[in-house]
Task: inverse folding
DNA sequence: ATCAACAGTTCCGAATTTCTGAACTACGGA
DNA sequence: TCCGTAGTTCAGAAATTCGGAACTGTTGAT
């Protein structure tokens, strides 16, 4: 398996972020990761929504999220730990992630600063 | 020509907005409209960026923006007047449009509230 | 009224992208 | 070593996007 690619923070492009999160399934995965604290795995959410997502599709969703710069993935034994890059992202694109998750009605409690 | 469809504010979906603005060309058009005050026409920006956008593509970009709820288009004589729905949108999705335009580095001065 | 010019839309085929089942790789445990 | 689990890659089918050419609707001129 070739090593996982993660863009440097300065190479992250807003169009890639918007594209990645324009798929409700991916947005739900991202929101779930943002709320899960840390280390959400792939198989943990095979049926996050109403349908069962095929694992090849799930793998692809994670790849899109990773390569757009939204998450960081790291192999840990047999499974893959994923975490968001929210802190970095908020520095580069202030308010963006929060506004998007809020628009989806999926802002996790710990990201709420009201 | 069939009448132009504009979604009601409550039918606007965040995924459609993100999708529409995930195309840098469309985002530039939208930013330009947001800054143009009001009434930007289609042909006025055949070459907004470095390349000349074919008019069928331009027409399609406007359709995507319109049907996602980002802009309102109205025929005025022979041409089409377009304006953003920023005010409505900001009520429905607080901070979203601003954060996106800022991320693209295209927040027009009049939307700046710092 | 007819015609020409212009702004934009629609149509449709080519190219690109997305989706997902099946085969495959990687790791850990017995 | 062999098995099970987690996830990736491959490849073909389906869906989407792109853009040139033809078309529609409006205005202004003759």
Result:
């Amino acid at each position: 398996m070739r090593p996982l690619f993660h863009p440097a923070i300065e190479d992250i492009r807003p169009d890639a972020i918007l594209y990645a999160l324009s798929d409700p399934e991916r947005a739900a995965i991202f929101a779930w990761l943002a709320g899960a604290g840390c280390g959400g795995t792939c198989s943990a959410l095979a049926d996050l929504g109403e349908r069962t997502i095929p694992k090849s599709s799930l793998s692809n969703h994670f790849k899109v999220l990773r390569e757009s710069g939204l998450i960081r993935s790291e192999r840990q034994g047999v499974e893959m730990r994923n975490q968001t890059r929210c802190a970095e992202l908020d520095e580069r694109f202030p308010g963006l992630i929060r506004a998007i998750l809020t628009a989806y009605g999926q802002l996790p409690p710990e990201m709420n600063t009201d």
